[in-house]
Amino acid sequence: MATMGVMTGVPHDVFALARSARTVTVLTGAGMSAESGVPTFRDAQTGLWTQVAPEDLATPEGWERDKAYVNAWFLWRVHLVRSVEPNAGHYAIARWAAFPDREIRIVTQNIDDLHERAGSPVLAHVHGSLFEWRCDRCERPAPTPEPPFATTGPIDHIAPDQCIHCASGEIRPGVVWFNEPLPQDSFFKAALVCRDADLVLVVGTSGIVQPAATLPHLAMAAGVPVIELDPRPTEFSPYATHVWRTTAALGLPALVDALADQARGGIE
Ligand code: APR
Q: Whose CA is nearest to atom 35 of ligand 1?
């Protein structure tokens, strides 16, 4: 999908930073999966939060208020993610990781599995995963429930499964809702790989939600250059070492192609 008005040629200093970096941390947000057909949260008109209220669907209070409503919405998202494919941006990161003497670490706010399906291990899913469900009482892991519908549109209410281990629990998505703590180990690893990288790429996040939005600032504070790759300005744009107004599925393949050309001696 070509997005009008964004750059596909690789800016020189983006290329120079990427070429010299041996350890790269890629921080991704919903924009990384947008060209796969997974809606972002805050894009005007198409963002999920413009269609439904986050306080009803992504908070513990919303879950306690109406579990069947929240369960149905997340099952629709399981169905949606299963029905789409990783995009050229996901595959480009996996290709880059295969370069000799390069280490690419992925930290994502996304709860989808598109990086993994493109062949990349994900070091940290700082907001959890659509495919790690658990009991809301005893917290034991549970298999991802099967979305009961073939339709693409969400169904209003689907009662959550009962926990088979404890009498009172019901199965909830293993994602981090607003007002919930992030998985500590996950966030700690994310912070570490922002500070010890030669380069950090921030792809497709508005930089609004804390503490994930702190991560690129940790890199900057450690003297690590940070490139923002996003078609629109974000909260982080004023601080980035370089801002590249392009999309994940256009910019990342162009960058990795240029690096591959240079490695073959194509570009001096
Ligand atoms: N390529 C790159 N970036 C894109 C693309 C694209 N094709 N399309 C949109 N974007 C950018 C938008 O410009 C925006 O900056 O992706 C970003 C999406 O921002 P959000 O919708 O706010 O998503 P994100 O930053 O990941 O949200 C963070 O908020 O609701 C919570 O838990 C949820 O993890 C999520 C967190």
A: 109
